[in-house]
Design goal:
Elements lengths: L1 H20 L5 E8 L2 E2 L2 E2 L5 E2 L5 E9 L5 E9 L2 E10 L3 E9 L6 E8 L5 E9 L1
Parallel strand pairs: 4-10
Antiparallel strand pairs: 1-5, 2-3, 5-8, 6-7, 6-9, 9-10
InterPro entries: DUF2914
Protein name: DUF2914 domain-containing protein
Organism: Syntrophotalea carbinolica (strain DSM 2380 / NBRC 103641 / GraBd1)
């Protein structure tokens, strides 16, 4: 009986360690809206910018992904989805970005959500075009 209890406790400890060792899953470690990308990094961080800008980029660094997953950059203007861009993730520490072209009527509040394939938001960044 004691041997059976000890064996049960040992199995429980091994099971708990296995659960704790599981990776947390995919995360957006960094989400930055920027005017450009250089050497796979954002050149600046935009919180507000003149509405005369032609393009902005959303940079995201994804960690904890399995090989060949996809993240989505979903761009919103005044709460309305205007673009959804699928981006491949090919390692557990991957940098990627999307580009959005703006037009004259682009003033207002913008947001970019970084989502996984199930639609879970991994990160988000808000900015204003003045």
């Amino acid at each position: 009986m004691v041997k059976c209890s000890m064996l049960g406790m040992l199995l429980l400890v091994i099971f708990c360690q296995t659960l704790c060792a599981e990776p947390l899953g995919m995360e957006a470690a960094d989400v930055v809206v920027t005017t450009g990308i250089r050497d796979r990094m954002p050149v600046d961080a935009v919180e507000s910018y003149a509405a005369t800008v032609k393009n902005l980029f959303c940079f995201s660094r994804i960690t904890g992904a399995r090989v060949d997953e996809t993240v989505w950059h979903v761009w919103y203007h005044e709460g309305r989805e205007v673009a959804k861009i699928g981006l491949p993730v090919r390692s557990s520490n991957w940098r990627t970005w999307s580009k959005k072209t703006f037009f004259k009527a682009s003033q207002g509040v913008w947001r970019v959500d970084v989502m996984d394939g199930r639609g879970q938001i991994l990160g988000s960044q808000k900015f204003h075009l003045l």
